[in-house]
Design goal:
By secondary structure, the protein is α+β, with helices and mostly antiparallel strands. The protein contains 20 helices and 18 strands. Strand 17 and strand 18 form a beta hairpin.
């Protein structure tokens, strides 16, 4: 074989090797990208992704002119997640590092333990709200040494349990307990402790029982397993958070929010430092652009006691914010009855009927009774005769508000309101009202408070226009509307009937809503019962 042939042979071998490698490479790519795409994609996602629950921001609240009154701004929270710790990592030490970092940056955190954070340690129980005082008393009753000290003190000072009713009469449950011959001294002491309320618990009582703030810190160190290496001041910092987690019944898997709306610098420090258990979670901050109408707008607040959490039903945890008043609370109340969260709302005054009906050219309606009523305090004058007739906006509003002479009271008025709303919708669906659509939308935007956008409104209007009049109906929640207890009128929902209706027409889920998902009070054999949660106060009529 000459030199030229040898050269060609080497080229052939190299070319063959190249094509073999290329074929193998293409085969691997084909197998990865085509044959097993789903498998490899899922594997890659699992290797880089972790499932997290992200808080959904509440919608905006606007005035009638579309000006934003309440909005939500994206933010980040610093949370402590014990489930992220390794087996050899101590939760208390990890907490201490985080708290010292927050302290150095002037960042405060929730700590309702009523003991001052620095020496000389003293009780600050008088500054607590009722919910925090109640949690503190519950903790003391569960801490054996503290409970025994308080019980012994009450046995010596039973007068501390004395209360005064609304009429000024004094009563003391200690009288019956001390007179009970079947109880020994220890039993009487424990019974007295059970009668102690959070409003009666004071710092003076704790000091008098021998439970100084310093002694309680020592008992809590033992309870939460703090090592002897912690100074008293360091122990107090950690105990405040551990107490908060315990008193709020947070599980180990629940991330505890240490600081809210943290800045980018703190996030950077956390990422660069050794802060085991620390986690940055996305959140939102509710911003109120005005101080006017606060009683209407309401406010958001964190769930602060077990009764409130239970009353809200399933789907809420201790880190959630809920409506405490006004619109914010109204949405929460609706959620308790529906069993799911409400995304949107619309509020309007009954006076809007005047503009809406006049814009539609009036409505035809069969007025069921003669209506004559004057109330100067409300600037209300209703004078409409019985019978089928054409009503203008002011007359429609009057019929809608009239409540006298109905045989079945408010239920009769509700029935008339349903019929009137249907008449309004029927009139709206008539072809000659289509040109008035822009005028009606303008009234809606000016007179209705809502978190729906203009696009949302137009979408629902267009969908409504597709309806046949026969498809429109109004329903009243099945309930006992004529209940009178102790001279007061009550409405009790018929839970089973309501759940049937809810699941038939209003349930957005694929699974059935049950009594465990709602929180509804109802009457059963003379007692007030809740479908979920607890009944606060007397539960008997």
């Amino acid at each position: 074989m000459d030199h030229k042939e040898a050269h060609h042979l080497r080229l052939y071998v190299l070319a063959a090797l190249f094509f073999i490698v290329a074929a193998v490479y293409i085969g691997v790519l084909y197998d990865t990208q085509v044959n097993n795409y789903d498998y490899y994609y899922a594997s890659s996602v699992r290797s880089i992704a972790r499932s997290e629950t992200v808080e959904a921001a509440r919608g905006n609240i606007t005035d009638r002119n579309g000006k934003v009154l309440v909005s939500s701004r994206s933010s980040y929270n610093l949370t402590f997640d014990a489930s992220l710790l390794e087996k050899d990592e101590d939760a208390n030490e990890s907490l201490l590092r985080l708290l010292q970092l927050c302290q150095s940056r002037g960042i405060n955190w929730v700590d309702s333990l009523p003991i001052s954070r620095s020496a000389p340690f003293a009780y600050t129980i008088d500054s607590l709200d009722s919910a925090a005082r109640s949690r503190f008393l519950t903790y003391l009753k569960d801490l054996d040494e503290a409970a025994n000290a308080l019980a012994a003190y009450l046995l010596e000072h039973p007068a501390l349990l004395e209360t005064t009713d609304e009429e000024g009469n004094r009563e003391n449950p200690a009288d019956d307990i001390l007179a009970d011959e079947e109880l020994d001294q220890a039993g009487k002491a424990q019974a007295l402790l059970e009668e102690l309320t959070s409003s009666q618990l004071t710092g003076a009582m704790l000091e008098g029982s021998g439970l100084s703030a310093t002694r309680l810190i020592a008992l809590m160190r033992k309870d939460f397993g703090l090592s002897a290496s912690f100074s008293v001041e360091e122990a107090r910092l950690v105990l405040g958070v551990q107490y908060e987690i315990r008193s709020r019944n947070l599980a180990r898997t629940d991330a505890y929010v240490l600081a809210e709306d943290i800045d980018a610098e703190l996030i950077s420090l956390l990422n660069d430092g050794d802060y085991a258990g620390a986690k940055i979670t996305p959140s939102s901050v509710r911003e109120y652009e005005t101080t006017y109408g606060a009683h209407i707008l309401g406010y958001l607040g964190k769930i602060n006691d077990s009764a409130e959490k239970e009353a809200l039903g399933e789907g809420y945890n201790w880190n959630d914010y809920v409506g405490k008043d006004g619109v914010e609370a109204l949405i929460g109340g609706a959620e308790q009855i529906l069993g799911y969260r409400v995304d949107s709302y619309a509020l309007f005054d009954v006076e809007v009927f005047v503009e809406l009906v006049d814009a539609m050219g009036g409505i035809d309606f069969d007025v069921p009774v003669d209506m004559d009523y004057d109330d100067p305090s409300q600037n209300l004058s209703i004078h409409v005769q019985k019978g089928y007739q054409h009503l203008n906006g002011y007359q429609t509003m009057g019929v809608f508000r009239f409540r006298n002479t109905y045989a079945n009271g408010d239920i009769g008025r509700i029935d008339v309101q349903h019929q009137m709303l249907k008449a309004m919708m029927s009139q709206f669906l008539k072809l000659h009202n289509i040109p008035n659509l822009n005028k009606l939308v303008d009234i809606y935007e000016k007179e209705v408070t809502t978190n729906l956008s203009a696009g949302n409104v137009m979408f629902y209007v267009k969908e409504f226009l597709k309806l046949d009049e026969s498809a429109i109906s109004f329903e009243t929640i099945p309930a006992n509307y004529n209940g009178v207890k102790n001279g007061m009128s009550y409405v009790f929902i018929h839970v089973d009937e309501w759940l049937e209706y809810l699941n038939t027409w209003l349930n957005p889920y694929t699974t059935e809503i049950t009594s465990a998902n709602v929180d509804i009070l109802y009457e059963s054999n003379g007692q007030v019962v809740a479908t979920s949660g607890t009944v606060q106060g007397p539960n008997k009529w």
